[in-house]
Amino acid sequence: MAYSALDYYTIDELYTHEERMGRDTVRELVSTKIMPSIGKHWAAGTFPSELIAVFGELGLLGSSLAGYGCAGISPSGYGLICQELERGDSGIRSFCSVQSSLVMYPIWAFGSEDQKQKYLPEMAAGRVIGCFGLTEPDFGSNPAGMLTTATRVTGGYKLRGTKRWITNGSIANVALVWAKLEGVVHGFLVPTTAAGFSAKDIHGKWSLRASVTSELVLEDVEVGEDALLPGVSGMRGPLQCLSQARFGICYGAVGAAMACYDEALGYAKDRVQFSRPIAGYQLVQRKLVDMVSEITKAQLLCYRLGRLKEANKLHPGQISLAKRNNVSMARDIARDARDILGANGVTDDYQCGRHMLNLESVYTYEGTHDIHTLVVGQDITGLQAFDS
Ligand SMILES: Cc1cc2nc3c(=O)[nH]c(=O)nc-3n(C[C@H](O)[C@H](O)[C@H](O)COP(=O)(O)OP(=O)(O)OC[C@H]3O[C@@H](n4cnc5c(N)ncnc54)[C@H](O)[C@@H]3O)c2cc1C
């Protein structure tokens, strides 16, 4: 069945012509190139790597960055791309978020001119893939406690440590590894071919199965002076990258919710029980109306978030509030859609179960739901409920 995107409040009109055109291009791409095969990839636990070159050709990688072969579109335009990609699958959006917001953005914002020239055009074209190594086996919500270290050696640095749950880890050409140099966190651009670097995939996931997730081991990996990102030190570096990526997730979650709503509505209109389509029953209508209500609120939140970002007025608490709301909303909608589909909803003939399981990862990564609660709690009370 053709996808029909929910826009109950004609929020479309608020976006510019260019933003809508970019969104429509990705919507079409998802319908024609992602939907036909994503279920098989998800079941097999494989990432559709043939899409990378297509993303590069369409300018989707690092799309909101200016110069260096990047498209330079508005943050809202980037958000809408994330929305459409996640309508297909959270894992596909994760690939683009990591490449664009977690690796290209820090090179663009904190890198030397040589690093920008070397990496950004190749990454925008999809010829070089990046991953972002912050989380460690014992440090997830509290990344500041990281154990990975960098020590100065003649001509550069030596890195030692383990990073876990790293998206794109084993397919990356360059890993942005966050490590403590003399006790202070710094970012290092580590070629994945460097001696002592290895990436092992994490298998057995029942979420984000069409995305590569790996453990990175750095055993005395030596890199040159030019591997250090010169423009930032301390946790401000990774946190600023995460704000960029979370912005995209706020939109992405709406896409997953829109996909589930569309599937549930279509199914409910077709499925006959007690001689009538189930969409005609009040209890089912209540569920569908709740979905429309929550998606519409989340769409408006995203719209405002984008315009605040464009005006340089967006602060991290506002992103946390939207990430917390929109991902939780999408997770609830995926589960309700699964319910409306009855037994069929537990099969991979339908997409709501895949979204439902994917959204468990999205709920946890880039700051868990509860950590974002504490971030907003601190913002509004001035009192920090956790140590950093
Ligand atoms: C599929 C996937 C892909 C990922 N990709 C990347 C990536 O590319 N790069 C990367 O660096 N990381 C990545 N991550 C890691 C992710 O960011 C972490 O999983 C996340 O930060 C949570 O850390 P944790 O899993 O160690 O959970 P923990 O920090 O151990 O949290 C477990 C539970 O405790 C709660 N909790 C923790 N502290 C507190 C507190 N102070 N108060 C109240 N509750 C608390 C949490 O909310 C959560 O419910 C990925 C994770 C997944 C699942």
Describe the structure.
The chain is of the alpha+beta class and 388 residues long. The chain is 51% helix and 16% strand. The chain contains ten helices and eleven strands. The strands form three sheets. Strands 3, 4, 5, 6, 7, 8 and 9 form a seven-stranded mixed sheet that branches. The chain has a two-stranded antiparallel ribbon with strand order 1-2. The longest helix has 35 residues, at 236-270. The N and C termini lie far apart (49 Å). The model has no long low-confidence stretch (mean pLDDT 98). The protein binds flavin-adenine dinucleotide. Flavin-adenine dinucleotide is lined by residues 98, 132-135, 140-141, 165-167, 208, 213, 361, 364-366, 368, 370-371, 374, 386.
List keywords for this structure.
388 residues, 51% helix, binds flavin-adenine dinucleotide, globular, alpha+beta
Largest sheet: 7 strands, mixed
Structure class: alpha+beta
Shape: globular
H/E series: HHEEHHHEEEEEEEHEEHHHH
Report the span from N to C terminus. 49 Å
Task: Name the assembly state.
Answer: single chain
Task: Name the beta content range.
Answer: 15-25%
Q: What is the radius of gyration? A: 21 Å
Helix content: 40-55%
